[in-house]
Specification:
By secondary structure, the protein is mainly beta. Helix content is about 5%, strand content about 50%. It is globular and about 70 Å long. The structure holds beta-D-fructofuranose.
Length: about 500
């Protein structure tokens, strides 16, 4: 199939098929798949004054398949416009998929850098996979792949590096020079992040290894991002095949930040602090951009690889998180929903309550699309917020004050598969209070604790009619809540 026909086919398919999705089924302020499957955010960047987001995309199925890039844009991170499928796997060097990558604006053109995947059988019937970095240049809608592709190959990496696991380039520009980092597997069988440099996007030079996993945090490191923030540099990676470490990292795919000092001459990041980016069940492969007013904003895939929960009747699978503003405070990565969300708040409700005897509920505190902040204090043992409830189904967020733990639990959310339902993280009161901000958008619960010190993001697919919210606890917890509906 020629280039244009494979892309053409995807564009026609998505336009027709998307018409079959029932109105009101999709989330209202989170970006989600147009139709079929999406995973990682790709090419999150500014172009001609708007924010663009691409994503790993298989329009033909609700499960992963040959990767295309889907495409959306927004002026304010909240209201998104769907654009046609951007690129399809239609070249000899990317025929098995256009894997994750990034984008930037260059002289009025939009530059995409992605991983071209090939898979061939050798004479012994063995599968030979190659992942190489490629460039496509366009006008915000249509893209042309460079004749020089692939522009970076694994042969440029240190000896022993995998030729098959080398993907997810993040490109940026600094003083007229282009840089890129990518995920790679080193000879010790675990991740490394090589740094490359180029003057013209076509010829790239390997500069060094920015960071090494050395078998400490999982195996392959996917989807790196690297950027300056508050006097430091931050490397974000999504490690595969991790073993659980206390409450900081769980088994399987995780996301992790490394804060440190960038030794540019040595192409090395000097590590200072490492932590988990999100403690929920559904968060992966985040990517960032810088806004014109200087904010570093991150978006992640709001799903995970191991627990597929998309309801059978949906024609689409996959959502992204609310874009989050990043900061560093006390050596930690802080994240809070973009401030633009506040423009969509409606119908403010303010209440105070005490959970001394029984459940506390308020007539006007219910819903599935809201922004709610709860501050709780007192000498209590446990405080629980029950959400998306209809009596039979519900989801809880519990603060075990004695143990200093915050527990998310979707066991009774109506899940019909035996997937993982709970996750626990450490949480501490600050000045005698725990502050929780919960964003819910139909199927998503994003929890930000103590002004973004920790985030916990998970999916729930409870029927949308289950919209009751109440509060309960053990001991006398006093709480104040402010709630808004979000209307886009
Ligand atoms: C991460 C990832 C990337 C890869 C893409 C394929 O979720 O595995 O490493 O580029 O998904 O869809």
């Amino acid at each position: 199939m020629t280039q244009s026909s494979r892309l053409q086919k995807a564009r026609e398919y998505e336009t027709e098929k998307a018409k079959l999705i029932p109105e009101g089924q999709k989330p209202s302020f989170h970006i989600c798949s147009p139709v079929g499957w999406i995973n990682d955010p790709n090419g999150f960047s500014t172009y001609q004054g708007e924010y663009h987001l691409f994503y790993q995309y298989h329009p033909y199925d609700r499960h992963w398949g040959p990767m295309h890039w889907g495409h959306s844009k927004t002026k304010d991170f909240i209201k998104w416009e769907q654009l046609p499928c951007a690129i399809a796997p239609d070249e000899e060097y990317d025929g098995q998929g256009c894997f994750s990558g990034s984008a930037l604006e260059m002289n009025d053109r939009q530059v995409l850098m992605y991983t071209g995947v090939t898979e061939k059988e050798n004479e012994d019937g063995e599968k030979i996979v190659r992942q190489r970095q490629c460039i496509a240049i366009g006008d915000g809608i249509n893209f042309e792949k460079l004749p020089e592709n692939p522009v970076i190959t694994a042969e440029m990496l240190p000896e022993g590096s995998s030729l098959a696991d080398f993907r997810d380039p993040k490109i940026w520009e600094e003083d007229g020079v282009f840089y890129a980092v990518a995920g790679s597997l080193s000879e010790d069988g675990s991740g490394q992040i090589p740094l490359f440099e180029s003057k013209d996007l076509k010829k790239w030079e390997f500069k060094g290894i920015l960071a090494k996993c050395e078998n400490r945090y999982g195996k392959m490191w996917e989807c790196p991002d690297f950027f300056p923030l508050d006097e430091k540099h931050v490397l974000i990676v999504s490690p595969q095949f991790m073993t659980a470490k206390g409450l900081e990292f769980h088994g399987g795919n995780n996301t992790m930040y490394i804060i440190g000092n960038f030794r540019k001459k040595e192409a090395r990041l000097e590590e200072e602090a490492i932590g988990s980016i999100d403690y929920g069940l559904d968060f992966y492969a985040p990517q960032t951009l810088q806004t014109e007013d200087g904010r570093r904003v991150m978006i992640g895939w709001l799903q995970n690889w191991d627990n597929y929960m998309t309801p059978d009747e949906f024609l689409w699978s996959g959502m992204m998180t609310i874009p989050r503003e990043l900061q560093i405070k006390e050596g930690r990565l802080i994240q809070n929903p973009v401030r633009e969300l506040e423009n969509y708040r409606e119908n403010e409700r303010i209440h105070h309550g005490t959970t001394e005897e029984k459940q506390v509920c308020f007539e006007d505190v219910r819903g599935r699309t809201f922004d709610m902040t709860v501050e709780v204090s007192g000498e209590y043992e446990e405080f629980r917020i029950v959400l998306a409830s209809d009596g039979e189904f519900y989801t809880t967020v519990t603060f075990d004050r004695k143990k200093g733990l915050l527990i998310f639990d979707r066991t009774y959310s109506g899940q019909r598969k035996d997937s993982i339902c709970t996750r626990t993280m450490k949480a501490e009161e600050e000045n005698g209070k725990l502050k929780m901000r919960i964003l819910m958008d139909k199927y998503t619960l994003e929890l930000f604790v103590n002004d973004g010190k920790q985030a916990m993001t998970s999916l729930i697919y409870t029927d949308l009619k289950a919209d009751k919210i109440f509060f309960e606890g053990e001991g006398k917890a006093e709480f104040a809540l402010t709630m808004y509906d979000i209307r886009v």
